[in-house]
């Protein structure tokens, strides 16, 4: 992880509702957020509500976002990550986060 990236673990009450192309809503929990000075963006990683109760592999969603006035992702706008280099950076940060011994099992 680059020196300019800071990880902020999500709190239990941080949730975001995502709406798919068909208008279906799904509730997600914030795993963590971080900032990257290289891309001058903030990022949020999410996992589906209730996924921590499943034994199956959890699919994690990642977005860049515009923080709200409090710096939170839950009220700001989410944007897809479309650049391959940017995806690689996000995956590296996620892998570092998951390798941490203090990470709760999802």
From TrEMBL:
Residues 1-20 are annotated as: Disordered. Residues 1-11 have a biased composition (Basic and acidic residues). It comes from the Bacteria. Belongs to the UPF0473 family. This is UPF0473 protein PQ472_03910. It comes from Lacticaseibacillus pabuli. The lineage of its organism: Bacteria, Bacillati, Bacillota, Bacilli, Lactobacillales.
